[in-house]
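Hi R.,

Here's the input for the aspartic acid complex you asked about:
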Amino acid sequence: MRTIVQKYGGTSVGSVELIQRVAQKVAAVRERGDRIAVVVSAMGDSTDRLVDLAAGISREPNPREMDVLLSTGEQVSIALLAMALCERGVPARSFTGSQIRVRTTNIHRRARITDVETKRLRETIDAGIVPVVAGFQGIDDDGDITTIGRGGSDTSAVALAVALKADECQILTDVDGVYTTDPRMVPEARLLKRISFEEMLELAGQGSRVLHLRSVEFAAKYNVPLRVLSSFRPGEGTLICKEDPHVEAPLISGIAFNRDEAQLTIAGLPDTPDCVARVLKPISAANIEVDMIVLATARDGFKDLSFTVHRDDFLEAQRHARHVTSQFSGATLTADDKVAKLAVVGVGMRSHAGVATQLFESLARQGVKAQLISTSEIKISVLVPEAVLESCIRCLHKDLRLA
Ligand code: ASP
Ligand code: MG
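And here is the predicted structure with aspartic acid in place:
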């Protein structure tokens, strides 16, 4: 008998009819003889609507009260799904994060799950009752309600799967699984049957929005197989699991992209050991995350430093960068927020040379100049002008034979 945790996202529980369909799917798992716990998100865009309500009252709502507010969305969907299951003759019971004791840190809106108590969950499952658990929420040490970041229900589901030592954590959503790239952009994109945790982590970190990044980190750390599949259409979806050493991995698994990038470059920095630290310090002090960092030696021993930040942080980062630039005589700042990043990911790159050459030859044929490049063992990311992002990805998908 397998133990499965299934998570249904907001679109899958967006209406009463859809909740009834979810109940039917959960019932089917039980009829197969599997043990199941279910995690749900709030209905449709109801979390956005809660955010809007708060925005009507306060420009900077109190984070603790925000969590009390935001956590109500999931409380609605767990109750309705439990009712729908009972109506079908499937015993079910809803649980909020605090009823289960999903313990988190106390940073409201961005809390991290530290522990999930399993006693009540196990008792419920053992009694033949389906636990329906609210995603996205937990409690801190004071017993206050916390939320774990937008899109966090995926992570709640994996945390539950880890705690229950489940055989698989299934994320049921509005896409069929993980594709070689976004099929809305490239119609030839192919559904991946299987992908390693490592590759999925890179894809999620580089802009693929199929899964909450933390959920993949959690699943990888505790080695819980994760499956993304459609809650609307039949299909096996994509299995995300440990790399199988007996199966030759494809050279490249996918191309992710992110439009929310901005680039800052300071040219003419003195070649001193502390110059990079001096530039980045005020940026990190302002809590701005820096992504790519490239230091290049210019002529006459001067250095050029380029880095990228999230586009939302662009103006603030630019302000800090302008200020530090003025402290170095002769240094100049250029800033560009019309950039986007694409990333080619594949574990096969580890043992095969030449992927970078193929990638840059393809860009060259399109007349595209890379603005920044960074690599890891299994990833090459390139910053390009936003205007050419789509055409770059279409050509790369073809030239790297992903279709
Ligand atoms: N309801 C929350 C959100 O909209 C959590 C989730 O859907 O995963 O962000
Ligand atoms: Mg989601």
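One thing worth noting: Residues 139 and 351 are 45 Å apart (CA to CA).

Cheers,
M.
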